[in-house]
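Reviewers of the previous submission asked for a worked example of the structure-prediction workflow described in the proposal, so we include one complete record here. The input consisted solely of the amino acid sequence. No template or homolog information was supplied to the procedure at any stage.
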Amino acid sequence: RFFTFKTSSHNNAFGSSNEKTMWSGHVRTAAARLNNSVRLMTLASEFGPSRSTHQPRNICARSLCSTDAFPYVGKPDGFKQIDGSTVEITPAPASMPHVKLANGDSLPMIGMGTFTGTRHTAKAQAGTLYETTKMWIRMGGRMIDAASNYLNEQEIGDAIAECISEGIVTREELFVSSKLNNPYHREEHVQPMLEKSLLDLRLDYVDMYLMHWPTAFVYVPYEQNKRGFPPEYEPDCCTGVTGVPWDADAFQKDWPPPHLDAGVTIHETWNAMVACKEAGLTRNVGVCNFKVSLLHELLCGTDTKPAVLQCESHPYCQQTKLIKFCEMNGIQFQAYSPLGYGEFLPEDEISVLANSKIAEIGKRYGKSTAAVVLRWHIQRGVATPPFSLYENELRENLTVGDWELDDAAMAAIAELDKDYHYLRPESWYGLPLWN
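From that input alone, the workflow returned the following structure tokens.
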């Protein structure tokens, strides 16, 4: 596989102000709803007809818009995707397992990850996710795990709008997630950042909005009303704002590092996300990269439980007790990096897909190592959005509901747990979040 799904974190917003307007919850919610209604009416009146030759079906106002957009950005000599429009259209597989979220929404247990690297680590050419998303939808994939931090929601949105316009899928058949990036955790930045993602995705709502990391960064300006981001936009290091080069070792010696915003709590951010749900901008809200103690703290301060917790999980980092805690609280666990760390894996690290025991199980079932691992996730009740750029692998991912592992195979994989994390936030943020 080219690489597998990874979650990182960081984002954008405009005109920073740390002043807070202290509204009561019901006033804030009413104002958000009013703002959303006015915004949607404005979109509907201004965005004009679709230029597609097909009759639009269930197309939202943003999918019809001609808003200014930055060009796609990527690695010029990176991976180049095939034309997604050449992929055969096949229906969503009837065997695909789904889980029902707390509000009754149905989440496909296999989705498509969309991380192709940061500004500094990009692995693919510009437009890759536009083609890959079209490929995924045309072959029957219905869950898409996006994030503002991945800097490709504009591409994904163009592909979604095209597939809807062509009648391949309806908006209601898709489950689209996005994530709040680190620089936008303050209350006044949360809804504008979600609205920016909606503009990029050409959607009026997302099905899930996740807090990408439980760490707030300093605000990084961005253009609220223009789709995409320019090449100079960089929300991971925040160097353009702080003026300090990224150096994790130096950050730990001189605490706190300049990119961290220590003046905002997860409760402030969470309450603002809940307000976005009440305003109709997202159907569900959730969190990523929370351990049990932090998740417990969040639950103690809210009446709105996260619908999903997304964390790293694979045979070497199984997260069994964290998953159990989610089950106890009615929270669906979703695994990122479900197959390990893929293309971003250093040569000297252990590899899930190179594990001989999993390979032996695959031979017994006539399945690839990746297919065995994905089926193992499903049988644990874990949803996951693995990432591949290849049609045969994406199609294989959609067959996960066609077969089962026996108890012996499940037990053999359970023995592989090492509590081994490929993602180590202390090297990015100066925070050892897994400790």
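The radius of gyration is 21 Å. We consider this example representative of the routine output the project will generate in years two and three.
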